[in-house]
Amino acid sequence: MTDVLRRGRVSLAFAFLVQGVAFALLVTRIPAVQDRYGVSDALLPVFLAAVPILAGIGSVTTERLVKRVPPSRVLRWSQPVVLLALLGVGAGEEPAGLGVALAAFGLAVGALDASMNMLGVSLQRAHGRSVMLGFHAAYSLGGIVGASLAWAGAHGELALWVSYLPVVLVLLPAALVGSRWYVDGDGGPVAGGAVGKGGAVGLRWLAPLCLVMTVAYIGDATVSNWSAKYLQDVLGSSEQLATVPYNVYMVTTLLGRMIGDAGVRRFGAVAVVRAGALVAAAGFAVVAGAPGAWVGMLGFTLLGLGLCVLVPQTFAAAGRRAFELRGPEASDAAVARLNVFNYVGFLVGSPLVGALGDAWSPRGAMLVPMVLVLVTLACARSFAPQPDRYGGGHERPRTADVGRGSNGL
């Protein structure tokens, strides 16, 4: 079983990496997509907003789907759809074709994100220790790789489909091969023998985690959408220097997630989440008060180190708590519902900061996500595991009760 879990962990990390590559290749080439299809500035936000909305629908659909098929199967077949939809975005010629490709991308991304994190939560339960941040570190690494490939394609003035095709040809078969070793967790110690009962996931206890997920993605959307403009327009940097903060943010996100699991094992999830929230709030404060570009970049560096721990730990906490209450089916349902608030934060973040910047000031707008991320401190107790369960020094699940390979292992 140790070999099964090890292979499952590696294969799932690769799935996270592939998703990071695909998403970065899409979002970093939005201007090229707009030019290819002749989409106006007024219409572009409609196309872009449709992706997270449909992703939310895909996530909710996955909650129902995994009652009949294992999450590993949903992930196995949604990932190729994401990659093919990405290629469709690059190869189409008419706006209608772009709409179809983005719709397929959004729906498949919702199913993929939900099923990926379901498997991550169950693998963490099987290992009996924090491993969730490592999966999200693989996603961050994929984002860096994807952004680099996008830069190379733009620098070489390659057509979108020429940039996307080699990536899809390499990653699609690799993802399908890797999917043979996905592991579906199906049990472990549960209070009151609740395994298998499933049942509705209560919204009362999940609400604080949904709030943290929304806040984390508002912060992430603020960095991805406004860091370059803020550095150039407010802090007076050059156009070239303005591209640096997001890259720094991605790198520090990767580094924070690489070491984050060790921090959770040593200090516990509550302490790590509180520390992440405080560091992220400090980052927004530095950005808001920065006298120049280099101090502003320091603020974005702090944001990467702080925000990086919130999302993985929120998924882990939701899955763990639902499992304790009602068993593995409820854990999957909680992850799927929580994943919807990923897209809520993404939709809210950029317009919120932009509107506040216009109505108030760009510096003042940065204080709003700072205050929102501090709300995480009030929700931190929701990340605490129940005594004598598993993970963070608690009882480890019996290996015989956990982990079925998706190929029948």
UniProtKB/TrEMBL annotation:
<keyword id="KW-0472">Membrane</keyword>
<feature type="transmembrane region" description="Helical">
    <location>
        <begin position="366"/>
        <end position="384"/>
    </location>
</feature>
<feature type="compositionally biased region" description="Basic and acidic residues">
    <location>
        <begin position="391"/>
        <end position="401"/>
    </location>
</feature>
<feature type="transmembrane region" description="Helical">
    <location>
        <begin position="158"/>
        <end position="177"/>
    </location>
</feature>
<feature type="transmembrane region" description="Helical">
    <location>
        <begin position="12"/>
        <end position="30"/>
    </location>
</feature>
<feature type="domain" description="Major facilitator superfamily (MFS) profile">
    <location>
        <begin position="200"/>
        <end position="409"/>
    </location>
</feature>
<feature type="transmembrane region" description="Helical">
    <location>
        <begin position="340"/>
        <end position="360"/>
    </location>
</feature>
<dbReference type="Pfam" id="PF07690">
    <property type="entry name" value="MFS_1"/>
</dbReference>
<dbReference type="InterPro" id="IPR011701">
    <property type="entry name" value="MFS"/>
</dbReference>
<keyword id="KW-0812">Transmembrane</keyword>
<feature type="transmembrane region" description="Helical">
    <location>
        <begin position="98"/>
        <end position="119"/>
    </location>
</feature>
<protein>
    <submittedName>
        <fullName>MFS transporter</fullName>
    </submittedName>
</protein>
<feature type="transmembrane region" description="Helical">
    <location>
        <begin position="294"/>
        <end position="319"/>
    </location>
</feature>
<feature type="transmembrane region" description="Helical">
    <location>
        <begin position="42"/>
        <end position="62"/>
    </location>
</feature>
<dbReference type="InterPro" id="IPR051788">
    <property type="entry name" value="MFS_Transporter"/>
</dbReference>
<dbReference type="InterPro" id="IPR036259">
    <property type="entry name" value="MFS_trans_sf"/>
</dbReference>
<feature type="transmembrane region" description="Helical">
    <location>
        <begin position="267"/>
        <end position="288"/>
    </location>
</feature>
<dbReference type="InterPro" id="IPR020846">
    <property type="entry name" value="MFS_dom"/>
</dbReference>
<keyword id="KW-1133">Transmembrane helix</keyword>
<feature type="transmembrane region" description="Helical">
    <location>
        <begin position="131"/>
        <end position="152"/>
    </location>
</feature>
<feature type="region of interest" description="Disordered">
    <location>
        <begin position="388"/>
        <end position="409"/>
    </location>
</feature>
